[in-house]
Amino acid sequence: LTHLGPCHFTGTKVCFLTLDTYACKPLHMYLKYRFKGLKSLFLIPSNRNSYKKNICIDMLRQGYHESFSELFTLIQKWNALREAAGPGSAIWQQKSLEEQPDKLDQLCHFLTRAEAAQRAGHYEEVYDNQLNLAYYCFNDPEDKWLSNYFYEQCFNTAQLIKIDGGKREAQAHANMGLISEEQGHVMKAAEHYEVFYQLTEGSTWKDETGHTYNSLACEHLWRIYTLLADKMLENKEHQQAIKTLIKALKMAKEGGDKMMEGEATYYLSLAYHFAGEQQTALSVSYFKVTLVFSMPFSASLGILESGKDLKRLGSQTFYNLNSAWVSMLLTWLLQCRSGSRFLS
């Protein structure tokens, strides 16, 4: 599952550090001189203080008090997470945030840019800088907590943007939905995906891969509705599961993906089967077989074998279905493909 990020990255990854002697210079001057090879001119004063302290002093001198406060809070949060995990944990073996100059550079760069944009009332720029931190700068597994923090900041900022037709708000709901889903909060994820779907109806917005936001919303809702239905079936809530899977099928059809539609139909037929409505289950299965006949043979087999791949959705109840049900449908398709009469 991939988060929605900016169309392209415009910021520099290695940022700035203006030190005592040159604190009055514009921030970009440090990069200018540093990459011309004049490191020693700037790095002499840094020996007096830690890297973190020099960055913090510079932010305060230039008036970025909110950025300083946020950076300090994040460092404290990392230390608290490390202490809570204790010796022997993965995070205990990592360097602290204040001991990683590249990450401090990135935080300093984008936080101050976001603060400057906020002062000017340009909330779309605030959002973009926060998203750069979440999507590009902190995408390693060890930085998951930091990435999630900035996705949450993006979500809060997106509510203030009024000039982009709701695109960034939609993007923020999609990203928060993914975070909620990863954390096991399925109902919360569904709420975010539903708003994402509503905001993208009729739009032509696309992600980096060329998929429309609305088709992504349909895919997310199909997946999350299937997970919700699975939990309902575990609790013997058959009718509620059927209603939820009907919604999942609707999303699959709107998404325009025949494989997804075939799987959604398959899950719905199983729900009817578990509910004891065998005739309805067979009629839904009939629709499924007619659907796969309109697809290439390899793809159609993929749909009918989808029950063997349900664990990728985390769907334990569907995975534990009667294997004879899948075998019957597979045999049926193979016979039809080999020339047998179709439902004569």
From TrEMBL:
Keyword rRNA-binding: no
GO biological process, one term: cilium movement
InterPro entries, A to Z: Bac_ResReg_Asp_Phosphatase, TPR-like_helical_dom_sf
Cell compartments where the protein resides: Cytoplasm
GO cellular component: a single term: sperm flagellum
Domain of life per record: Eukaryota
UniProt keyword terms in alphabetical order: Cytoplasm, Repeat, TPR repeat
Cited function: Axonemal protein which is implicated in axonemal and/or peri-axonemal structure assembly and regulates flagellum assembly and beating and therefore sperm motility.
Protein name stated in the entry: Tetratricopeptide repeat protein 29
Species this protein is from: Bubo bubo
